[in-house]
Amino acid sequence: MVPREHGAWAMLSLPYISGFLTAPAGERGWARVVLGAAGMLSLFMARAPLMRLAKQRHRRGSFGARAGDYWYSALVYLVLAAVFFILVASLGEGWELWQIASAAALLAALQTLSALALGERSMTAELTGVVLLALAAPLGYYLAAGDGLWGVESVTLWAANATYYGATVFNVKMKVASMVTRRDSLGGREKLALARESITYATIAVPVWVALALTGKAPAAAPVVFTPMAAYVAWSAATMSSRLKLKTEGFTQLGLSLAFTAALIAVWRYGW
User: How far apart are CA 15 and CA 13, in angstroms?
Assistant: First the structure.
C-alpha cells in the first residue's frame, strides 16, 4: 500500500532534509542519514495498512476480509524499518534513537486516536500528524551531527517545520471551504469568515517567532522564513473563490515548501 496523502510526503521529507543539512556533519554522519531515511520511510509506509486496520476495527468491530493483506504489508515495512534502525544503532546511536522513537510512538498514537474519534480530516488529527511528521527534522539533525537531539537548534527546527506545515493545513482547509460554496465571487465578510482561522494562526505564529528571535532562542532572521507563508495566507484570503484547482494548489504548496526549506536551512545553518 502507498499512502494517499500526497502532501504528507513533503511534510516528512523536507523537514528531514532541513535537519541533516543544517547539522554539522559528524563522523559517519552520512551513513546514519541514509539508513535513517530508509527506516523513516519504511515506518511511514507501514502507517497506511495499520491505519486501514484500525479504522475497520473501530467502525465494524473486525479487521475485515482483507486483514491478512494489510497485516502483511505492515509487517514487511516494520521489519524493514527495524533492520535499518538497528544498523543505525550499530554505529553507536542506540539510546537517543529510543528517545525519539518513544516520542514518535506517542504522537502516532494520539494522531490515530484523533483520526478514529474525530475523523482523519479533523483539525486535531491533521495538526497532530503535522507535529509527528515534523519530528523528522530533529531526527535528521541528530543522525548527521551525532548529538544534539534535544538541543536548541534541533528542537527549534522541529517547531519551525511544524509551524509552517500547520499553516498549510489551515490554508488548504480554507480553500476547500471556499470551493464548497460554489460561488465565483464572495463578499468581504464571507471571505473573512472562511479565512478567520488561517489569519488567526498566522497572526499568532509570526509574533511568537519574533519573540523567540529577540530572546535568542531562535536565529535573528527566523521570522523571515515565515513571511512567504503569511503573505500567501493574506493573498489567498483576498482572492478567495470557488474556482479551486487542486493540482495547481498542490504545486503551489510544494513550491512554497521548497522555498521555506531553503530559507530555513540558510538561516539555521549560518545563524542569521
Answer: 6
Q: How far apart are CA 53 and CA 158, in angstroms?
A: 29
State the cell numbers at 72.
502483511
How far is Cα 189 from Cα 259, in angstroms, rounded to an integer? 31
Total-model pTM: 0.90
Q: What is the dihedral of CA 99, 83, 14, 179, to 10 degrees?
A: -100
| Tens-digit pLDDT profile for residues 49-80 | 999 999 888 888 888 788 889 999 999 999 99
Residue 146 gets the label, from left (phi > 0), alpha (psi -120 to 50) or beta, of: left
User: What are the grid coordinates assigned to 226, written together?
Assistant: 515565515
| pLDDT, tens digit, 9 for 90 and up, residues 185-218 | 677 778 888 888 989 999 999 999 999 999 999 9
Contact 156, 218 (CB under 8 A): yes
User: Is the separation of the CB atoms in 158 and 138 below 8 Å?
Assistant: yes
In single-letter form, the type of residue at position 9 comes to: W
